[in-house]
Every structure is written in structure tokens, then in C-alpha cells.
Amino acid sequence: MKVNVHAVNFTVDRKLVGYVQQRLDKLDKYYDRVVCSDVFFKVDNTGDKANKIAELKINVPGDEFIVKKQCKTFEEAVVLAADSMERLLMKRKQKVGAKS
């Protein structure tokens, strides 16, 4: 699966990009018709320590899923977003399978 990583107002480390690619490759187990995915990293300018935002956008034929999580680290936000996306993709697969 092709993963595009975008960072708003900062540069992303290669380790983080590799981690995101590795984590999102696991989504192919749940739904194999994923076209592409985009990951947006943002830093919220609040005094809160949990100010790292990861937004995960996945395109599948005929639909698009978006999950947004905010945590203390980008890695933690990616894990939570990917877990939510797994549930969405499993629901999608069951829905498409029921129609067939």
C-alpha cells in the first residue's frame, strides 16, 4: 500500500515515516482493496502535553475513511488511529461481503 506522510509546519524524521509505513502495512490483513493512504501530522499549539495530532485518511474503492487521534507522541497517535481504522475496514469488508 502506498503511504503518503505529510507534516504541517515541521519536517518528519525517517524513523517516524518507517514506523508509519510498517504499522499501516498491517491494515492489508483486514481489507486488501486499499488504494492509498495519507497521514497528516500536526502539532496543536495548546499548553496541553497531548498536543500531537495524527490524521489517517484511507481511500478504498467507492469510499474514504478518516480517523483523527491526539496524544502525547506521534507514534501513540498512529497506533490509536490504526486500531480505529482496522475496525472501520473490518466493518466495510463485512458490509461488502454481505451485499455479494
According to CATH, what is the topology?
Double Stranded RNA Binding Domain
- Please count the beta strands (DSSP E, at least 2 residues each): 4
What strand order characterises the main sheet? 1-2-3-4
CATH architecture: 2-Layer Sandwich
Provide the low-confidence segments as ranges: none
Q: Please provide the ordered H/E string of secondary-structure elements.
A: EHEEEH
The separation of the N and C termini measures 25 Å
The number of helices is 2
What fraction, in percent, of the residue positions are helical? 25-40%
The Rg value, from CA coordinates, equals: 14 Å
What is the number of independent domains? 1
| Shape type | elongated
Largest sheet: 4 strands, mixed
Strand content: 25-35%
CATH-wise, what's the superfamily?
Answer: Ribosome hibernation promotion factor-like
CATH class category:
Alpha Beta
Structural class: alpha+beta
Mean pLDDT: 91
